[in-house]
Automatic annotation (TrEMBL):
Predominant location category: membrane
Domain (ABC transporter): residue spans on this chain: 336-571
Top-rank taxon, per record: Bacteria
Organism: Macrococcus hajekii
MF (Gene Ontology): ABC-type oligopeptide transporter activity; ATP binding; ATP hydrolysis activity
Protein's job: May be involved in multidrug export. Transmembrane domains (TMD) form a pore in the cell membrane and the ATP-binding domain (NBD) is responsible for energy generation.
Gene3D superfamilies: ABC transporter type 1, transmembrane domain, P-loop containing nucleotide triphosphate hydrolases
Pfam families assigned: ABC_membrane, ABC_tran
Protein name per the record: ABC transporter ATP-binding protein
Cellular component annotations (GO), alphabetically ordered: plasma membrane
SUPFAM superfamilies linked: ABC transporter transmembrane region (SSF90123), P-loop containing nucleoside triphosphate hydrolases (SSF52540)
Domain ABC transmembrane type-1: 20-304
Origin organism lineage: Bacteria, Bacillati, Bacillota, Bacilli, Bacillales
Keyword Membrane attributed: yes
Tagged with keyword Transmembrane helix: yes
Length: 579
């Protein structure tokens, strides 16, 4: 049950002063809380024996006042230390998760749903916070506080009465331990279901335009209703077990009260204890309701925390498929070459790239074309070092890509993806993401290179216009050009455009290509596209089909060869004439 505390031993060691002081204060608080019932018993006995004087009365009142004031400050301090510590753990684990999310390769996200990862970063971390906060409190109160009360009952009243009243406790502990194990299993299942629902909500929100276009709102709503019902059912399975704890505690406590009242009356008649001591004993029994209830809470919280920690650690312990070499080298060159490269995605059943041989000298432009699904983006992902290299070798600047760290590779590259992901910030902030320290003049230059200057003038707040989540507030062509400006402002050695001109018109495309040619003289450019007009100027064009290079050469060479390139060129030329 306490595995979660041992697993978090590194944190308790790190914050040992905080938790040591908090535990000491909790022990002191226990003393301040168990003394008042004894004072009550002494007062009643003094009244019964007619020995209560004014002096004694005021002394008792003074002792009560002192205990209240001291108890207030002690309780404030331990609560602050304990629950502030739990917030620190949650913040620390959240930062660790975020760092892990940012460093994991795309292959990891192909196997793990976004909604489930979000659930681990929210619900599971919240359960961990409860464990090191309220869980530690229940642990102390269900042990030291309970022991303190029992010692007070035994030494100050009667050990015989105490032992008899405590007889039901072992039964409570056994039942609650079994319930705790059942809660652990059901809680894990409920958290997994919550992760699936989270993922479905994210997909629904991201695809809201498609949903409305196909009038699928009712179908999705019905599906979501079923999913939420399933989640509620699984959480209720946990709560049904959880609900047994408090009634069970109350029943056991009532049995103890019955024993104390019955046998206590006998001891009073025998003269072994006084009426005041019997009343004090019953007050102590009443005080035991909380620590006995805390026993049930302890099993519950620890099992939930253990299940959540296992889910969080599964993410933190996951190994990236793209591990950096221990001895990384540095290259100033930016030529790129593929030598007999074969590659297969981790989840694929077939080879996705076959016998790829490409040589790009520093400063050259490579065009990658081919039908949809031919492997253009897969080829680019190899340069970005997103997946483990298969057979063969890929070099940048004459060095094998495996000798370069992921950071080294990506610092040399300015990349514009097919998705054109924008953040829910201003146009300016999205462009500055490529280089946060860029000046206003450099921003203006990048915008000009992306042929976005006139569009900026038409935006409501210019560069300060918010683009909305994933750029929903602007057009597809504007998203592409902001993405291009973001890559251009980085001024990287290698620029990669992955089908990044598909949403702009032919005139704008020509202007952007012209700007790239002029501004990137002497640096490497790689353009993947369906429009052949975007790569006609390239030093080398490769045609991919089903992961294999079926043609390569310059534009002039390829249009004089029979094959896919010539057919596509003629088709696109015919389309231009018809327009």
């Amino acid at each position: 049950m306490f595995d979660v505390l041992f697993k978090l031993g590194w944190f308790f060691k790190q914050e040992k002063k905080r938790y040591l002081f908090a535990v000491l204060l909790l022990l002191m608080a226990n003393v301040t809380e168990v003394l008042p019932p004894w004072l009550i018993g002494q007062t009643i006995d003094a009244i019964t024996t007619r020995t209560l004087t004014h002096t004694l009365f005021y002394e008792i009142l003074g002792a009560f006042a002192a205990l209240i004031i001291v108890g207030y400050f002690i309780n404030y301090m331990w609560r602050y230390l304990l629950f502030n510590g739990s917030q620190l753990l949650e913040s620390l684990m959240r930062r660790k998760l975020m760092r892990k999310f940012l460093t994991m390769s795309p292959g990891y996200y192909e196997k793990n749903r976004t909604g489930d990862l979000m659930a681990r970063a929210t619900n599971d971390l919240s359960a961990l916070r409860q464990t090191v906060g309220f869980g530690v409190l229940t642990l102390i109160d269900s042990t030291t506080y309970l022991i303190t009360i029992i010692l007070m009952m035994g030494f100050l009243v009667s050990w015989k009465l105490t032992i008899l009243a405590m007889l039901p406790l072992p039964l409570l502990a056994i039942i609650e331990q079994r319930l705790g194990k059942m809660i652990h299993k059901r809680y894990t299942v409920s958290q997994d279901a919550f992760g699936e629902m989270n993922d479905d909500v994210l997909e629904s929100i991201e695809g809201i335009r498609v949903t409305r276009a196909f009038a699928q709102e009712e179908n999705l709503n019905g599906r979501f209703t079923k999913m939420t019902t399933d989640v509620v059912d699984k959480f209720m399975a946990v709560e049904r077990l959880d609900a047994l704890f408090k009634p069970l505690t109350i029943v056991v406590t009532m049995i103890s009260f019955m024993i104390a009242l019955g046998y206590g009356s006998v001891l009073v008649n025998r003269g072994e204890i006084t009426i005041g001591e019997l009343i004090a004993f019953n007050v102590y029994l009443n005080m035991m309701v909380w620590p006995m209830f805390a026993i049930g809470l302890l099993f519950n919280i620890m099992q939930r925390g253990n299940a959540s920690l296992d889910r969080v650690m599964a993410v933190l312990d996951a190994e990236d498929t793209m591990m950096d070499s221990v001895d990384t080298l540095v290259t100033a060159d930016h030529g790129v070459s593929f030598d007999a490269v074969n590659f297969k995605y981790p989840t694929s059943e077939q080879i996705n790239l076959k016998a790829i041989d490409i040589e790009i000298n520093a400063g050259d432009t490579l065009g990658i074309v081919g039908p949809t699904g031919s492997g253009k983006t897969t080829l680019i992902r190899q340069i970005l070092k997103e997946y483990p290299v298969g057979e063969g070798s890929i070099t940048i600047g004459g060095l094998n890509i495996q000798q370069l760290s992921k950071q080294q590779v990506r610092e040399k590259i300015g990349y514009v993806s097919q998705e054109n992901i924008l953040f829910s910030r201003s146009v300016r902030d999205n462009i500055l993401f490529g280089r946060p320290d860029a000046t206003d003049a450099e921003i203006a230059e990048a915008i000009e290179l992306a042929s976005f200057t006139e569009d900026v003038k038409r935006l409501p707040q210019g560069l300060d216009t918010l683009v909305g989540e994933k750029g929903i507030a602007i057009s597809g062509g504007q998203k592409q050009r902001i993405s291009i400006a973001r890559a251009m402002i980085k001024n990287a050695d290698i620029l990669i455009l992955d089908d990044s001109l598909s949403a702009v018109d032919a005139k704008t495309e020509t202007a952007i290509i012209g700007h790239i040619q002029k501004s990137r003289e002497g640096r490497t450019t790689i353009i993947s596209t369906h429009r052949l007009s975007a790569v006609q100027h390239a030093d080398l064009i490769v045609v991919l089909d089903n992961g294999t290079i079926i043609q390569q050469g310059t534009h002039d060479e390829l249009i004089h060869q029979k094959g896919w390139y010539l057919e596509q060129f003629n088709r696109q030329q015919l389309t231009k004439e018809e327009m």
